[in-house]
Write a structure and sequence with these properties.
Length: about 400
């Protein structure tokens, strides 16, 4: 017997019909994230999910994976006990640390057939531990060790260490979005935030290869590989953007270029979104961070969108964004100096207050539909998966 991992998930938003849907997705996502762990079984219980371990499973690695699945609030490696108080006592003995100073018992009984209620289990097991461990003391508010006893229909589980999950909602319960992803700091974090709220993220990256070197493309692939740990099997659309940039460079006013590039990116991303049955676009804009992110320019850029254009980082400072990037591991990739499409043909003095009518006038000189069509035709689609990169 290799024990069990008990998974708890959030209750928020879990009312009525949403609950079974949420649970099904969560179980599916957990199975996916453990798909290379042949010796484990994932089972849905009542209000908890169980991963049954076998002596060939690696609990440490499984815990690490589960800590990247959105929708899990906490988890624990637990030992199963028989359905009676004596068995619980002897399992608790095994679970307790060698040196026990202060402790409490936290029992939860959802199996009402068990003869003692949770308070009675607390008292009985607490008393037993005090007897067996003469140095130990009960401390209900700040115990060093908390012995959790879950008396459930699926069995009785005992553990002393509760590990935090990521929270959020299971990827997939909120539908799909297309995220405009560069290799910078912001857009990976914007994508992460949407995944955390249950959206499956499809990635679109615009590149000027071969005018720019391969590095920025490779960095984007690496970033998607990292983000894929949270959703499994990510689609990355690589859109050639050089022709569009050249056309804008030749025909539009230099200070307006960036906004014109962005409007083209939005148009193309919407076509990808429709194809992928996605319902919104996501960017890493943060208010005032650069010239294209003033309110005026955000509104000029957003004007071409017919879908909601989500900007989850709009109210964050760069430092807050970088901190998150360090935490999820994209920081080192984004920190590498690379040249992407947006560092090509960038004007010295970008316009911070573009005028929509004026922008539209300049767009009349561009063969917008042809350019969009050509770009979409030449898109390359990659499926990026993190499982291959994961340590086995
Ligand atoms: P980031 O750190 O995400 O690159 P940024 O602060 O550098 O953002 P911009 O370069 O103005 O700001 O980009 C704003 C947003 O436009 C990005 O967050 C991203 O969503 C999108 N974007 C920019 N460049 C690209 C690209 N080459 N491919 C796809 N999306 C892009
Ligand atoms: Mg950028």
């Amino acid at each position: 017997m290799g024990g069990n991992i008990i998974i708890h998930y959030g209750e928020i938003g879990l009312k009525g019909k949403n609950r079974p849907f949420f649970e099904r997705k969560l179980v599916e996502n957990i199975k996916r994230s453990l798909s290379d762990q042949k010796f484990t079984k994932v089972k849905k219980g009542y209000g908890r999910i169980l991963v049954e371990l076998n002596d060939r499973s690696s609990p440490k690695q499984i815990v690490q994976r589960l800590q990247q699945v959105f929708g899990i609030t906490n988890l624990a490696v637990a030992t199963k006990a028989k359905n009676d108080m004596d068995a619980i006592k002897s399992v608790a003995q095994e679970v307790l640390p060698k040196r026990l100073k202060t402790f409490r018992v936290t029992a939860r009984r959802s199996n009402k057939n068990f003869p003692l209620d949770s308070q009675e289990v607390n008292e009985e097991l607490g008393g037993y531990i005090l007897e067996k461990r003469p140095g130990a003391k009960v401390n209900l508010s700040h115990p060093e060790t908390n012995i959790y006893v879950e008396i459930a229909g699926e069995g009785v589980f005992v553990y002393s260490e509760k590990l935090p999950g990521l929270g959020g909602l299971p990827v997939g319960v909120s539908g799909r979005v297309v995220s405009l992803l560069s290799s910078g700091f912001d857009s990976p974090i914007a994508s992460y935030r949407l995944m955390k709220r249950g959206a499956r993220v499809v990635f679109a990256h615009f590149h000027s290869y071969p005018q720019t070197d391969k590095r920025s493309l490779e960095n984007v692939q690496k970033i998607v590989g990292l983000l894929d740990q949270y959703q499994s099997k990510s689609k990355l659309f690589l859109v050639p953007f050089l022709d569009i940039q050249k056309e804008i460079y030749a025909k539009a006013a230099a200070p307006d270029r960036v906004v014109l590039y962005r409007r083209m990116m939005i148009r193309i991303s919407e076509i990808i979104a429709r194809q992928e049955r996605a319902e919104a676009l996501v960017t890493g804009d943060s208010l005032g961070q650069v010239a294209s992110q003033t309110l005026t320019n955000m509104s000029t850029i957003g004007e071409v969108a017919t879908m909601p254009l989500l900007r989850p980082l709009v109210g964050l400072d760069k430092e807050e964004i970088m901190q998150k990037a360090r935490q999820i591991g994209t920081y080192d990739i984004s920190a590498q100096p690379d040249e992407d499409c947006c560092s090509l043909f960038v004007p010295k003095n970008p316009n911070t207050k573009t005028n929509i009518a004026d922008i539209k006038k300049q767009e009349e000189k561009l063969a917008i539909n042809d350019l969009v069509e050509k770009a979409v035709e030449s898109v390359k689609i990659e499926v990026v998966t993190s499982l291959n990169n994961k340590k086995r």
